[in-house]
Design goal:
elongated; 245 residues
Amino acid sequence: MERLDGATLRQPTAPAAETRQTHAAPADLRKPHATGSHTRKRLLLVALKLFGERGYANTSTRAIAQAARVNIASISYYFDSKEGLYCAALDQLVSASRLDVSAFTAPGQPIGTLLHDLFSSLLAPLRKGRTAGFAVRLCLHELIAPTPMCRDKIAPVIRDIHQALVGVLCSHLGPSAAHEDVSRLAFTILGMALQPVMMRDVIDGIHPGLLQSDAALDTWITRMVEGSTAMIAAEQRRLASSAAR
């Protein structure tokens, strides 16, 4: 297994002319391709798929190059190493669902609007078709067998979103809310959004159509906002009842 302690990307000599390989590629990749940025995007898509299916340790650069139908030297040219390619694949996953925390915590916003923005950001990868499936599987591998990349890239994003949500809930619930209760509520709300992302294949198998279109996702987001506001209202009632005793 290659080192996973952070890669320094560089631009070495361009790879030799790319050659077609006999290894089968995904259907949406079986098309003529150009050099440059197209090759880089192609490698990223294939890497997302294979890393998601096999994990980092069980995916070789040769397998990625064959599936992408490019010369293996292209990986070193565009990403420096297998580690650099894996890092770039994780960046794709993180950027797809990154929340603008500053906008989310802006004062004066209705709680329903903030929650809608939160769920829209977290479910954004599901709007990207097959690429979303590759990214979700990659994230699952990181949860099952985490690499340092999980600590360095995925965990900070979840922490920042959780802290932002805790701040919003504290402002809404008032100073009487205990930090443990607010943190627990924040994790519960976030779990509502993570379930359809992490269980996409299971949900599609049990009830096809719930996540199959933008309209279906919009409905899911609306229901999550309704459920979250109900939980927040229940916490407010609990706090009021405790204060009255």
